[in-house]
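Re: the pair you flagged

First of the two:
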Amino acid sequence: MAFIYPMQTVGIIGGGIKSYHLALTAKQMGFRVALLTSVQEPVLDIVDYPTIGNPNDLQTVLDFVNGLQAVIYQDENIDPQILETIQANNNVPQGTDILSITQDRYLEKVFLDDLNLNVAPYMTVVSSADVANGLASIGYPAIIKPIQKGLSHNRQEVLYRQQDIAQSETYLSGGSAILESWVPVDQEFLIMVVKDQKQKVQLLPIIETFFDGHQLIAALVRPRINAAVAEEIQRIAHVIADKIDYCGVFGISFLKTETDNLYTQRIFPGIHLGADVYQAVLGISQYELQLRALLGWPVPEVHVRTNGAMLVILKAIEEESYTQVKIKPDWQFNYYPLAETPALATPIGQVIVTNEIQTDLINKIKATDLWHI
């Protein structure tokens, strides 16, 4: 087991706000931080060794990792072959097994299927005829998506009727796509898992997640969930964790219908924005848990201390959020450093709210008329 001492240098591949918080936490723990990202962004201002370059260029990555004591990938779309190459001479504790599963939607579905987990019916399609045949099999409505997750952010189309088949052409122009049944969602859940270097597994508390379209807007601990569903989520998390050769934090999302049918949706290789709520309810952040697991530090047993919610501040409600800052002394407001003026649907910060009484927590959030949970 590799133990990385304070004052040694840790490298992070990939930028964004999650890398920003991961780098801040690493520096608070005493590490020097190097970071590779493809664009100029605020995280480069806080690290010791900033690098702008292509994370999917082998020579760029080889130059970046030279002399680092550990390498962490935050970009889930990085080429696993590059990571496998640098593993020969560098410490990459996460490994690449999880990426071989999560980067391809079809392989991810097959992986979950092979574990006898409940997933929405799916199939690969390469032509409009395939889409028509698929819809005849799995029914309407259905969702078509690119097989490779990294092709574009949240790109998908819901097909409601036969006339919509023509809309699938744009997803087939680059090759194959995946067609899956639309699930009538009543609730969505997330569970984070941490595996240390000895492969010891700890399940973190279940989070109820809330979305506006594809955009996460809130995350709640403790979730409104019955015991049987919670136990099944935890069972599935253990099954998946045991089958993936991985070290660090990763997440699994779930969809639940009104009749309590639970569908395993996807696996997240690393940190998830919704799990930012952990700092308030556990007393330790997902970023510190990630670093502890990857760098050989002991991982503490965590316990829920109170009810808590993380609320995403979108650019569209920026002014309204300032009003809440003025009247909510017990709420914690965090605004992200941004390199440029964001679009209205862009997250610009988050609010952390806790309360011993869950109904009070939820009612106070709803009273703002900004977040609907």
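Second of the two:
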Amino acid sequence: MKKLVFIFMISIFGLSYSQEQPKVLKTSFSREALAQKLEDEEGKNTTIQQILDQHKGKILVIDFWAGWCRDCLKALPKAEELERNNPNIDFVFLSLERSKEGFDKSLERFNMKDKDNYWFASGWKNDFNNYVDLNWIPRYMVIDQKSSIAKYYAISPEDPDIQETINRLLK
């Protein structure tokens, strides 16, 4: 009986805290989302708009992750493979670490120092993450050469839609 209750509790907990694809797959960002501030490795503030402007004219993959996230760490080798297989594509890593110290430690621990990294000092709940319906990590988005959203929702770097979207944008 205890075993059945345990399985029931796990299934309910699992269902209520899993990624759920948003009902509306957005193709652009709101003004508020673009104004969202993040910090780079040196602690300098930047906005989503400034990050997109740095990559304008290129295809950009955004990877939401954190060093405390078991699913993110499990996906990291495949995310690195996606990056290796697409050397002409830009990748930006948006961290949801809980502190600057945690951000710095994760970058060091997971060999991310040579990547384009930012973290949400404001925390998970902010204008950008709310706008993109961020409900779990890891999460991946593909941004086209004009800074529009080409692939809104992917939960794994192995999602074939990511590569298909990149390939379509390269044509």
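Residues 4-17 have pLDDT under 50 and may be disordered.

-B.
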